[in-house]
Design a protein that fits this description.
The protein has 397 residues and is of the alpha+beta class. It is 33% helix and 16% strand. A nine-stranded mixed sheet has the order 1-3-2-12-11-10-9-8-7, with helices on both faces. A three-stranded antiparallel sheet has the order 4-6-5. A hairpin with a 2-residue loop joins strand 10 and strand 11. The longest helix has 15 residues.
Length: 397
């Protein structure tokens, strides 16, 4: 591999971070005693995007998709696979004119290609979409207190639905608990919430930013309460069926999905024996890369909620303190690639995810006005792979 290609591969390795993996080593926060909600006191928020950037994303996401063959993308994809220790790697890229390319490779030539991959915390974007649809339907308010559904959670009277979406609740993330991570097999949402309730909050509601899987499990329970059906059924109806995503499954508890790439297990990662359906609304989507691109295009093209709500998701972008470079909105991440590579100019609107044995990312490139999704099992960087694929596209004016 040439130095230039290696540089491109590594340039975005930390662009959209993998919160699930990062939290595994996080210590329990010190005891915080709250008497009410407080004002945000963390690092400055990111500046807002202009309307033209959303309009360009919507236009690029509204064109009719047609499969394309690209030798350049094939070559870049194979080089990315060769530079990483993956068991299976998949990607899809859709350009502004509607051409969509996709490919999947496995480390064994004799192995059948998986038909879907586990997208980990990328699933939070799906959960947030359902919550915001409920807001548009008048069934929910972003200011609604958590105490309406889960009064047992610390600070529930002062935590809002928006806090859960944005990770500003301060709630202890169950995934940071070493005892829970050491337990193999499936854990139901009630078990996750009990661990979240027992852990010390990182800060008083509204006062900072801290990635909390517990908050998204609570959002799943709110969806169930308002929709009157299990989370996976509600998300299937609100997102999968609505977009006719035929290669997407919102996993039911303990569901074993045939054809999904198996998580790679290594001796130095705890929790790899966990059931992939444990994360529930914090990340429970299995899909092809092409379907994840279709979902992200639909989101930014305002086909899942109104344009005003799409903009609302990116209105307050909190620095992802303690996790890595990037910013978080309402179930969305933003990354300025210059934070990783000073020579880079691109900005991605997307979401990343990871857990032992699997990593994934979906993003829209402002520079290239293209959508990309990458997932893998094993060791490697989906962000770097996405960056390498995008690097061959011309920059849009």
């Amino acid at each position: 591999m040439t130095p230039d290609r290696r540089s491109l591969l590594l340039a975005a390795a930390g662009a959209l971070v993998l919160p699930g993996s990062a939290l595994a080593a996080r210590r329990k926060p010190a005891v915080v005693r709250c008497k009410g909600r407080v004002n945000y006191a963390g690092p400055p928020l990111r500046g807002q995007f202009g309307d033209w950037q959303f309009e360009a994303a919507a236009k690029a996401g509204a064109s009719r998709l047609a499969p394309v063959i690209s030798d350049g993308l094939e070559t870049a994809f194979e080089k990315a696979a060769g530079a990483m220790k993956t068991s299976a790697l998949t990607a899809a890229l859709a350009t502004a004119d509607g051409g969509i390319w996709t490919q999947t490779l496995t480390s064994s030539r004799d192995a059948a290609h998986p038909t879907s991959f586990f997208w980990a915390s990328v699933g939070k974007a799906y959960t947030a979409t359902a919550i915001l649809q409920l807001v548009e339907e008048g069934k929910l308010s972003l200011d609604a207190p958590l105490s309406r559904w889960a009064p047992q959670m610390p600070g529930a009277a002062w935590i809002t639905v928006e806090d859960l979406l944005a990770h500003t609740s301060g709630l202890y993330s169950f995934q940071a608990d070493p005892g829970l991570r050491a337990e193999p097999g499936y854990k139901p949402p009630e078990r996750l919430l009990a661990v979240g309730a027992a852990g010390a909050p990182a800060f008083c509601p509204g006062g900072g930013w801290s990635y909390s899987n517990t908050g998204y499990v609570l959002l799943g329970k709110i969806i169930e309460a308002l929709d009157g059906r299990p989370y996976h059924e509600a998300l299937t109806q609100r997102v999968v069926t609505r977009l006719d995503l035929r290669e997407t499954t919102v996993l039911a508890p303990r569901q074993v999905l045939q054809g999904m790439a198996a998580l790679a297990v290594s001796a130095d990662t705890d929790g790899a024996s966990d059931d992939v359906t444990t994360p529930y609304a914090a990340g429970g989507v299995a899909a092809s890369a092409a379907d994840v691109v279709r979902f992200w295009r639909a989101l930014l093209a305002n086909r899942l909620h109104k344009a005003e709500m799409t903009r609302r998701r990116f209105a307050r972008l909190y620095p992802m303190t303690g996790v890595g470079p990037g910013y978080y909105g309402l179930g969305v991440m933003v990354s300025d690639l210059s934070a990783v590579d000073p020579k880079a100019s691109d900005t991605w609107l997307g979401h990343a995810g990871g857990l032992p044995g699997a990593k994934a990312v979906v993003a829209y490139s402002l520079d290239k006005q293209a959508y990309v999704a990458v997932a893998l099992t094993g060791e490697g960087s989906p962000e770097a792979t996405a960056n390498l694929l995008l690097s061959g596209l011309p920059k849009k004016a």
